[in-house]
Amino acid sequence: MVDVFGMALRDYQNGAYTEDIKTYSSLDEEDVIPIPYLFRTFDEMPKIEQKALQLANGKVLDVGAGAGGHALYLQKKGLEVTALDNSEGAITVCKQRGLKSTVLSNIMDYSGEKYDTLLLLMNGIGLAGKLNNLSHFLQHLASLLRPNGQILLDSSDIIYMFEQDEDGGYWIPNNEAYYGEVAFTMEYKGKKSKPFNWVYIDFNTLQNACESNGFNCELVISGEHYDYLAKLTLKK
């Protein structure tokens, strides 16, 4: 499988940045991921991410670490942090940038260690892929938590991407799937990734899933565009 994301990160890190990653989604949207944005500093991060990094404590696992910006910030703060990503290129870049502890793995295949904070930023909960995988995903995250541990995650309610009718309701395709489920393909320098599933979860849906999987779910802050930061802790 072509590691499109990792190729782009490596190019940027090695001074060969010439283009951004293109994304194609099942929402008929073509978009780009600006690669410099993936290397942003704390001051350049949205408030939601800054707040999550301020709340992170103890031993931290940064899930889907990408270029490692969040993990590097926490490492500089003196926290014991591990960057996990299933992109070989991303992990190479994390190491080049000075991260001491990295893991090349899919989160669902990773076990053994336990953490005080699991960080899933940039819609990290999207790694669940589909809504019907969410319970399994949350239970796996629970297995990685220390007794008083926390999960900090952000996501968005993408209802705004659907057309509204005159009385304020939304036109959502009635195909039985949850409207936050999206299939993506990434392209970089003419190479395409395999399509992958990604899910954006509105806060109420997340709260319900947490309730049925033994988690407390707290809304920490809401962002400017249907996005939010949530803190999950295991019920006593």
Automatic annotation (TrEMBL):
It comes from the Bacteria. Residues 60-149 form the Methyltransferase domain. The keyword Flavoprotein does not apply. Pfam families: Methyltransf_25 (PF13649). This is Methyltransferase domain-containing protein. GO terms for biological process: methylation. Transmembrane segments: none annotated. Keywords: Methyltransferase, Transferase. GO terms for molecular function: methyltransferase activity.
